[in-house]
From TrEMBL, chain A:
Residues 44-600 form the Hydantoinase B/oxoprolinase domain. PANTHER family: 5-OXOPROLINASE RELATED (PTHR11365), HYPOTHETICAL 5-OXOPROLINASE (EUROFUNG)-RELATED (PTHR11365:SF23). InterPro entries: Hydantoinase_B, Oxoprolinase-like. It comes from the Bacteria. The lineage of its organism: Bacteria, Bacillati, Actinomycetota, Actinomycetes, Geodermatophilales. This is N-methylhydantoinase B.
TrEMBL record, chain B:
GO terms for molecular function: 5-oxoprolinase (ATP-hydrolyzing) activity. It comes from the Bacteria. This is N-methylhydantoinase A. Residues 5-193 form the Hydantoinase/oxoprolinase N-terminal domain. Pfam families: Hydant_A_C, Hydant_A_N, Hydantoinase_A. It comes from Geodermatophilus ruber. GO terms for cellular component: cytosol.
Amino acid sequence: MPVIPVAGSEEFANRPVSPAETRRAVSDAVRLHDVDAAAVEAVDPLTYEVIRHRLTSITEEMGEALKRMSGSVVVTDCNDFDAAIMDEVGEVVQVGLYNTQLAASLDMAVNWTLRNRCRRPGIGPGDMFLCNDPWVGGGLHQNDVSLFAPLFVDGEIFCWTGAVAHQVDLGGVSPGSWSVAGTDVFWESTPIPPVKIVEGGEIRDDIEDVYLRRSRVPRLVALDLRAKIGANNVAHERLRALCQKYGAATVKAVMRRTMDDAEARLRAKLRELPDGSWSSVAHQDSARAGDREIYKIVLNLTKTGDRLTFDFTGTDPQVDGLINCTYTGLRGGIMPVVLTMLCGDIPWAPGGIARCLDIVSEPGTINNCTFPAGIGKASVASAWATTNVTTECLAGLLDSHPEHRQRLMSACCGTWDFALLAGVDQRGGGFVTMLCDSMAGGLGARADSDGVDTGGLAVIPMGRVADVEMNEFAFPMLYLWRREEPDSGGAGRFRGGVGASSCFIPYDSPVGGVHLVVSAPGKALPLAPGVSGGLPAGTQYDVLLRSTAIRDALAQGRIPTSLDEVGGERELVPVHLETGMGPDDVYYTHWQGGGGYGDPLLRDPAAVAADVAAHKVSRRGAEEVYGVAFDEHGHVVEAATRDRRAALRRRRAGLENEEVPA
Amino acid sequence: MAHVIGIDIGGTFTDAFAADETGRVAGVKTPSTPPDFSQGFLAVLDELAAALETDTRSLLADTDYIVHGTTSTLNALVTGDVATVGFLTTRGHADSISIMNLEGRYAGLGADEVQDMVRTNKPAALVPPQLIREIDERVDHKGAVVVPLDEEGARRAVRELVDAGAQAIAVSLLWSFRNPAHEQRVGEIIAEEAAGLYVALSSDVSPRIREYARSATTIMNTQVGPRLRDYLQPLEAELRARGFSGSLLVMQGSGGCVDSGAAPARAITTIGSVLTGGVVGCMRLAGELGHRNVISTDMGGTTFLAGLVVDGEPVSTTSTVLNQYQLSVPMVDVHTIGAGGGAIAWLDAGHNLRVGPRSAGARPGPACYGEGGTEPTVTDVDLLLGIINPDNFLGGRKKLSRELAEEAVRTHIAEPLGMSMDDAAAAVYAIQNAQTADLVRKVVVTSGQDPRDFVLYAFGGAAPMHCASYAADLEIGEVVVPLGPTAAVFSAYGLAASDIVLTAELSSPTNFPPPPETFNAAFGQLRRELDAQLSEQGLKFASVGYRNEADIRYTMQLAEVETPVPSEELDEAGLETVGAAFGELYERLYGKGAGFSEAGLQLITYRTRAVGGLSIRPRLAEVPPAEGDPRPTSSRRVFLDPRHGWQDAAIYDYRDLAAGHELKGPAVVEAPTTTVALPEGCVGRVDHLGNLVIRYTQA
């Protein structure tokens, strides 16, 4: 059934609003601190650098506090969270180096809260607002819960701080809140628009209960709420001291100048790059369980002078399923790559950086959907695909400049390989967890070097996976292996980083098996494209092996190292699946690498041989894709390699049908 | 007269400090002698004997023990000059050390580098693929055997590794810390196949959950162990030949030392030994001065190190990062947080003035050294602001060029920013101090403390020039600049004044509280292990103390809090008290209300530290009391505080000062090894041991 528009939902369809317009909307409901341009101009280099450095260290302290206080592996072991400092209207001054998708969406939530909550219930000192409504902002799907807090100085909102983290479960049909069979948002966790959950420094029990009641793991979610409160408290204490020492006006002037500085430097870099247009199409296979359609996101990126225009015209309409994303997801998909590829050497002040970007997108499309489209996996579905098209276009832009091409990277791990386990753990308690192993995706190749093997994801500069032992201690599972997979990185003159695979069995649960939810696209087609002739990374590949004799094998002293050795009945896992795993079932999940750069036939044969020795490329891949010939000792045979490569080129050009020499 | 000697071998200098029971002390310095550091070791002993007006043989004959801090293991790991190691692990998990939990791509990098994500890389592989073998065996999270050890396969793997050139073998199997039987059997098989080969088992070296760090720790231990053994054995023999009959002890990163015979098996624990000397020195001096909480700041030409002493004990960490690899070793928590006097001042692409983290290093060094450096550094600015006397740097051993410093600041900072030379230099000085305050604050706060509860110690060539300023920023009321006989060789003093410290730990993750008998049995086991190790040291201890702690966390948190545990046996009520102590520590770390006990607690690791006090503790002699007021040698224009600008400051020669002398800022004290800046508003007082104690009388 197609999504039916919901009257009344439009007030949550948030778009970025200018500071001036925000001030008009807020009017006299709450006083907003401000400084004039002259004050910004007047900050001397010394004061600027001292305060800027301190703001950075406060953001780091927030992240540190949140990470250490949280109770979710997703946060503590995988760094799927972020923190930011914003000015009085929500423009982001400083963002942490964790999940940059998240922080790039906080501004819209704060801004909406100012405009819509300033009168009733009002915004006062010690208040904190919770939000997980991706139409408003503050996160890309409902699992991203943000908590943001105004800091009052002398009766005015001086600035905001915000913390956001992925929560393991907030209700909905399926455990983990990713309802793979869902067709719209009502199958999922119901979004919570900004609510005042902390009032005057105290948690409101009634609001907290409304929030926690929906979760299958309310205690874990409650612990994370306190982690976010703690992170905001840490920041407020430090910011207050900073204002006391230097004066609020000076601190604000530094905030403004930090954003202005980032903007000016990005503009300067853009001016150095040639004008032009670059385009890319990203596909997603399957929108929900049982669906086998392909959906596309189209980007035409135009660079003119010092501006970038992201035009998504031609993108497919929103669909029944869980893969859509809101406008926040669209922005959150763009920002991480703008930060890592354009701003590696520019301060991460998205408030300033965003001023160089224009977005053209039609509401009702797959990456700018309207309520009540399903968005349960928005962050890693349409938002991620948006990241992939942005990566390909920006890489093309950077590749046109001899110096700036140093900072291009082909698409990283084409998607998130979502596998969620739920059930009863070895201590008899209920558990729900997202398996975060696939955080160790391959990074894209660079213009001068290979992508980093199992180096992470584009959107999280500091991603992390948990040790096998930590997972086995926490959850009822036992790994047969976790290993890098040859040929998973996109071939190229510079190779994309390889991805990896995990293979495990349910283990030691009093009920025997576990519940499994899978949502892992990229099976029908590769999702991480290469750049400048580099090949895409391999596809996602997940297999369930039913009714195996694994326990006998282990007892007999044999640890299988391949699916053939595991045996049993092999089920190829579709993109979306919810099922149970019995005690004799084995799950194998193989996530993706990064795209390659340049023609693989131009890769140094010695580098290919080294890849074969290190199991990054198979012998067959080296011969067929890289055109390298080896002797019986595995050494490169130069003349034969030249011949092979020449033959492969002729075949590519369709010049002849000759056999490629072995 | 029985002596104790501390010898600290750094990359550039070898320092030695000796003390006897009467308070007679001596400190000397000689150049280090890489690659054979033992030559410098022997040379500095000769110098020490000369300083004590005796000969080396007599001094050695009268020495009860020598405590040695060495940078050689750390250097070996950093430069990659290590033994060729073979690695054995559980089938299916060899890639753990290359996946590196993916954090290996950015671990240990500064924020600027992490942000430049496209340019980050993992370090070179710890072990090449041809030297790694997987073996069939598996233990589960409870320590139960899931797959029995394939002994024949293990034997075959060992032979293959030896054939492939392995000079030493590291073994790290999954869950070996819960059940070490398979690792121990593999150890026996290696001994059978390759007698005499250096072997390290992860269940010995780092018996803690998280296989990636445990394996990396075991491998690095194996890389440096054979080299440390080959260094210490001949050194000890040479000392014996020269008449030494005492104990040669080796400093560990844990802040205590172990017998040199035991050091190679746990070689990895020595990587922090040079860094910790300063913190231990602070701890001892603080003991003499009655300070319980100390921030130790050591700023030299190329590094800035910060460590903490809380309640009289150095603050430790349970893990550290080296070459982007995560290591699980208990160590004194020493943070390398800045670039020291060599930090470069520069303009970024937005034309903003920045200081560090890039450093001019020892070569070419600051512009004023005249050794090819053209970029302005903090040291250049210290010179231009009148703090450093160009004719009296390092006691006159190095002449500095004011012109070159000016040139560097003018062309790189002042002219491009349209600032005066004075303003540009003052800005660099102030930014350096404020950043130092930020970084020191982070170190203090992340260990759950408030800087205002601390006394700050400042040593190393450059820290005393800046400490009054960053201490004020941290709202610290008292700063100590150690200037007595230990000043030049403060780390060596720390070594000579150290104890034997042994740590044993047992990872046994469980929901908290476990049954009291389980809990008590774990600590009982650790105590027995430590007692056995203490008796192996072959030393007489003046005292032996034990400290128990348990790493506890809220269920599923990454970070455990090291929670103190009383050393007696505990019942259920006692365990509840431990849980409450965790809650309090947690709130101190993360703020009131942050704790959430409903989530449940988990205990991950039990740990016991045994401290064996050595029989001689160096005593510091008192300096004579002052007669009359201190007399400045001269005065010059200095810039110490942006609020006051350029001022006339009295210049004192430290050698003219005596106990009780009080100096009012603005003033500068020139000592042979450093220069102390006293801004307006603070007073420096020479204490009875010759240290300069700085207090602010006005903000």
